[in-house]
Each structure stands twice: as C-alpha cells, then as structure tokens.
Amino acid sequence: FTLVAVLALGLGIGANSAIFSAVNAFLLRPLSVADADQLVVPFESDRSRREFNEISYPDFVDYRDQNEVFSGLIGHYSTGAAVGGGDGKSQNDVIWGEVVTGNYFDVLGVRAALGRTFLPEEDRTPGTHGVVVISHSLWQRRYASDPEMAGKTIILNGTVFTVVGVAPREFVGTKIVLGMDFWVPMMMQRQIMPGNDWLADRGANWFDMIGRLKPGVSIEQAEANMTAISRRLNETYPTKRVERERVNVVVVPEPEGRIDDRGVTQAIRLGAGLAMVVVGAVLLIACANIANLLLVRATARRREIGIRLALGASRSRIIRQLLTESLLLALLGGALGFVIAFWTADLVLAFMPLFPSFNIALDLSPDLRVLGWTFFISLLTGVIFGLAPALQSSKPDVVLVLKGETLTLGGGRRGWRGWNLRNLLVVTQIALSLVVLVCGGLFVKSLRETLRVDPGLNTENMMTMSLDPSLLGYTEEDGKRLYTKLTRRLETLPEVRAATLARPLPLGDSSSSTGPIIVEGQDPPSPDGGFYAGLTIVAPQFFETVQIPLLQGRDFTERDRESAPDVVIINETLARRLFPNESPLGKRFRISEQSTRPREIIGVARDSKYRTLGESPQSFLFLPQLQNYRPEMTLVVSTRGGVGNIAERVRGEVNNLDARLPIYNIKTMDEHVDFALWGPRTAAMLAATFGLLALLLTALGLFGVMSYTVAQRTREIGIRIALGARPHDVLKLVARQGLTLTLIGVVIGLIAAFAATRVLSGLLYGVSATDPMTFAGVALLLAMSALLACYLPARRATKVDPMVALRYE
C-alpha cells in the first residue's frame, strides 16, 4: 500500500512541481543579485496603461536625476556584436551583450569574479572609454578561463575594448532566457552599434530601465513620482513627447517587467495556466486514488479503531492519527515529486531546440520557491486525500465491529456510505483522466496534422545563415554591394544551384507587418478597417531559390533599386482580397498611411506558410531588398546535392570579401522549419505525457481498490464458491462493480471534456476541439485499461480456496 501510494503521489506532485518550476523560471524567479525583491521595472505608457515602451537616453537622465523613490536607476539594451581577439584575428563569431549605464553593476549589487566592473568616469563622455565586462561563460568557452584576462583586449564590432572584469558565474544579465556575454558602458553606444547615434536624441526610444526602490517606498509611490516627472517632461519637450501620448509611468516588479512584449507575456501565461490546470487534474486523480485506497485499507482497521473507541479514545484523536498518517504519506510523495521535478528539468532542456549563436541561460531546476510550493502542495494533498477517509473511518458501528461483521460485495445497508464515497472517488478519477487524455489526444492529432502541412517552399538541400555587415560599420551602399557580390560569387560555385537573401525568412521571426493598405483609386479604409499583411524583404532570385512559384508577373531583379519605381510582389490571398475578379498586375498601393510612395505590383506568388505551419491563408507581400535595405539578412543557399560542407564554402567566400565579417545562426532549411514545430511538438508531448500519467494513476487506483476489495472479502467469496458459484460467476460479480463505475466515469468525463476542450480551439490545427474520433478513441482506451485493471483482481478472486476462506477470521 505505502509503495503504491508514494509512487502515485510522487508522480502527481512531481508533475505539478515540474510545471511550476518552468513557470518560476519564466515569470517568477528574480535576478541572481542581492535583494532582488527591491528591483522594479518602470515603463512609460499611454492612458490605457497597457503599453510598455522603451525610453530615450535624455529622458532616462531626467528620470534618474529627478526621481525621489529609487536608490539607483539603470538603463540596458541588448545587442549583437562581432567578436574577435585583440591580435586582429578573423572575427567569425557573433555574441550577444548589453549596452548599460555605468551604474548597472553597482545598482544590481553584482561584483566581478575577476577584475572589476565599471568606474563612474567610464560612462560620462561618449566614445572615450572602450571597456567591457565579459560573462563567465564567454570567459570559459572562448578564452579558456584565462586568469590574466583582465587588462587584455578584444574587438567588438571593429572597436578595440579592454576587458576590465569577468562577471560571476550566476549572473547572465537582465534578459529572460538569453544569457548575455558582454556589457559595455552606455557612452560606447555608437561604437558598439555603428551607424546609430542615439545618446543625444530625445526622440530615440530604445532601451529599458530597472530601478531599486528606496527602503519603505511602495510601487504605487514610485509610479506616482515617475508619472509626475513624465508629465513635466511632456510640458518641457512637447514636440518630442506629447505626440507619443506617454502620460503615465507603470512600475512593475522586475520578473513581471522582464518581457516588455505584452503578447509574449500573455502567451507564456496562457500556456502556463493551461499546463497548471492539467497537472492539477492529474494531482486530483492521484488524491482520489490514495483516498480510495485509504478507505479500502480502513476496512481492515475497523476492528482496531472500534476497539480504541470502545476503550475511550475520542473521535478527534482517531482523526488526528489518521490525518498524520496521510500527511506522512504526502510528504514522502512530495519528496519523490521534488526529485522527479529535478529529473524533468534536465529532460526538458535536452529536448529544447538548438539556438545557434545564442547563449541560452534557461535554468529550469527547482529552487527554494519550488521546494516551498512542493511542500505546500504535499500538505494540501495530504489533507485532501486524508480528510474524508479519516472522517469516515472514525465513526464505525462499534457493536457491529466488535461482533466481527464485514461488508459484502453487494454493499448492503451497513456499507452503503463507505461504498458510495469509494464509488464517487473512482468515478472522479475516471472522469478527470478522460478529460486530460482527450486534451492530450487533441494536441497529438493537431501535431500530426501540422506535420502533414506543405510549407509552400522547398526545404531539401537548403542551407541558411545570417550576416550583418552593420556590426562592422558598413553603410547602406556598402552593405548592398557586399550582398550583391556575395550572391554572385556563390552562384559560380558548382555545388550551388541558387543563392538569395531574406529578412525575415518565412517560418522564422515573421512578425513584421504593414499598416492598413491604401490602394490607388479606392476609398481609404476606415480607422478600424482595411487589409493588413505580413511582409518580408527579399533579394532577387528568392522565389527561384526557395521554389515558391510566381503565378503571375515576374521576380525582382537588380534593376529594382532605389532609383527605380517602388515595386512589390503579393501572394494570392492578398490579391484576392484587394482585387477580386481582376488581375492585380500594374495596380499600385501604399503599405500604410505613413508611406508616401506607392508600390506597383509586379507579381503574384503562390500562398505558403509565413509564421506557423498551422496558420490559415494569410495576406502577405514581398519587398525588394535593394529598395528596402536591412543590414541583417538571412542568406539562403540551394545546393545541387546535399548541404555537405557548403557552410565552409560560404564562409570562404565571405572571408574573401571581408575576413572580419562573421557568419552565424547556421542551419539547414529543414532545421529552420522544424524549429517552427517546437511549440506544437512540446504541447503535444506534455499533454500526451500528462494524459498517460493520468491513465496510469487511474488504472492503478482502480486496480488497488479492486484488489483490496477482493482481499477484504475473501471469506464471502469462499462461501459463494462453496455454495456452488462458478468461476465466471465470481469473475462477473467482482468485475461488474469496476466496469459499472468505469462506464459512469466515462460518460461524465465525455460531458466534461466536451465543455473543457472548447478553450483549446484556438490552439489546434486541422482538428476540431470536439473531434469525435479522439473522444471515442480515448473513451475506448480508458475502458480497456479499466477492464484490465478489474480483470486481474477478479481473476484472483476465482482462485480462492473455499476451505481457506472459511477459516478466514
């Protein structure tokens, strides 16, 4: 009994602790700094207080100098950098770091593991102090933990920086998931971000703030003080600020403000909420499981409890004893669950996709907060599954118990209450298990349908990699020339079929979109109407390289430059929406109200997938790279055979053009598309795992109840056999009870699942939230599992020796 109970509780509590550990890592865990609970994030916002906006450096200086609520206020912005050694070797890596104000480490309370952090004078005048603090991870993997690293130089984006310190191992910056590899002073912004001079521009809003509250200051007081400063700035600089309608400053705890994209935060919270509901159901199944086992086990202790009551023990004392036993079981299960949570964290990280060129710093391991949660859940679980059996067991009929009467398989008047409670718990287990299994089945079927989707572009023998010449100070014209030369040189290689550029590449970070499209000759759309479209910027031969057919018109060419008329290629969905029943070729439109130059449609491309494989047909358009320059581009190379060593051949051609220019984020197109499946695949894996766990717990619970029932009624079964009952009669007698409960639980579960799964409709692809095949399949699986769980104890009951049974008790 103890082994089954601890295992069931360990699985249920472990699932809860594992999910809570993930929620903790993303949303709750503070930075690894001293007194992290004092850190808050102030955001400028509009009247709705729902927008979280970055600020300019001049505004930051005013907030820093005028506020009365923070003991320190810092600014930070993450950026990529091409890195090389001070010896002038090729810069062939891209790392990520932060541009920070000089008080960054002091306010956070972070001390260098080697060397020092920034001095106040190193962040006073622009471009004068090229110093950098590097991460412990970068120090280890790139510089072999050189103990003399402080004082040496490295090259970041073509500028020489002196390493003044190495950050401690536990500090990875102030961004979620992405670990920073370097920190440079804010006054070096222009050097680390060539081509952008934002320090003096009050209209350039580009970084976030973190503040440390003074002792005794509340978040509400901080908001009021910062909002007053914001409104004074609006009056002082009306042309720079009033037009942005930033009339409020919202202050939130640091973990809540770590993700400044409200959409991402809401998505994480939705996923976390759904996962917590599912594992909560699994835990309830485990609780019902153990409660039922305790009820059955209490039958064997009825005589003991009856004697104790007859000898004068109070009912409250009996309840306390039984609850103590339940809590001890729960704590043992909680200890096992905490171990399972540790193991699950390692398993999840092992299944995470690779992020080339990024230092992923996601720590899912349980901490003290997760330990506290596990302890709380264990105590709550002990009370939930222990209270009802304790109350039930503490009031037996003492006279009947002392006379030695037992319950029968048929129940009878004396066992009616105990059997009703037991039946209710079994039915609850089965119903909850069916709901969890249906959710898992829907996600698995949705993944299967997603895997069948044609992405609309070729993925075989394709390699992708990223370049960003602006990191080395390339101007727009220099960048255009570099990219044109590179694609031409690559196409001369015998193993290359075609080469092109895109930003963003479909099924990657395709979040760019237009404003309401304004078609020439048509009435402008209403403020709440109009068509919007996703967009990407591509170089000539994009459609040929990725094999997206052009249904009408032509591809972009090198003649489509800034000096030529602006052109655009749209997909067939946008063509149907803008120009139903007519050819769109030659038509012109502007992509937003702010756009002044109309673009002529020169082609119509076949629909493909742009953001996710499971999306419905989306309006989408393509802009030519030579008219819409972006420094960071994804190079797409189509080979005549396998990708082989094509990455090294590309690196060689890049080195021939500029040996300092790094290539990063190298992966095949199959890997690129596979990454788009990570979300659906993870959802399906988690839902299916929890569903099978619920099934296992339910089957174990039903098996345990039936086994204890048979064991406690051995005498009755022996009498029935002695009186002529045949084995199949005993089999039916025992199995009938379990199968009846299963049928009731399945019916209730189907009704509950039908109502609950409607919440999932927006998360599924190619399958209805009430898919009849999934519902029927899960019900059949659960029924077969229950049949097996009932059959084994029932079969054992047919083997009872009547002579042994009659001597029982």
Describe the structure.
The chain has 809 residues and is an alpha+beta fold. Helix content is 47%, strand content 15%. The protein has 24 helices and 21 strands. Strands 11, 12, 13, 14, 15, 16, 17, 18, 19, 20 and 21 form an eleven-stranded mixed sheet that branches. A six-stranded mixed beta barrel has the order 2-3-8-5-7-6. Helix 9 runs parallel beside helix 20. The longest helix is centred in the middle third of the chain and has 39 residues.
Share of residues in helices: 40-55%
Radius of gyration, in Å, reads: 33 Å
State the helix count. 24
Shape: globular
Q: Which stretches are poorly predicted, pLDDT < 50 over at least 5 residues? A: 86-91, 407-418
Structural class: alpha+beta
Quote the distance from N terminus to C terminus.
Answer: 21 Å
The largest β sheet comes out as: 11 strands, mixed
Number of domains: 3
In total, how many beta strands?
Answer: 21
Proportion of strand residues: 15-25%
Secondary structure layout:
Elements: H1 2-28, E1 39-45, H2 57-66, E2 70-85, E3 93-100, H3 104-108, E4 114-115, E5 131-134, H4 136-141, E6 153-156, E7 159-166, E8 182-185, H5 189-192, E9 208-213, H6 219-236, H7 238-241, E10 248-253, H8 254-257, H9 262-300, H10 302-310, H11 315-351, H12 368-393, H13 398-403, H14 416-451, E11 462-467, H15 476-491, E12 496-503, E13 518-519, E14 534-538, H16 542-546, E15 550-553, E16 567-571, H17 572-578, E17 588-590, E18 599-605, E19 620-624, E20 633-639, H18 646-657, E21 664-668, H19 669-676, H20 678-712, H21 714-722, H22 727-756, H23 772-797, H24 802-806
Parallel strand pairs: 3-8, 5-7, 14-19, 16-18
Antiparallel strand pairs: 1-9, 1-10, 2-3, 2-6, 2-9, 4-7, 5-8, 6-7, 11-20, 11-21, 12-14, 12-20, 13-17, 15-18, 16-19, 17-18
Helix pairs in contact: 1-9, 1-11, 1-12, 1-20, 2-6, 9-12, 9-14, 9-20, 11-12, 14-20, 14-22, 14-23, 15-18, 20-23, 22-23
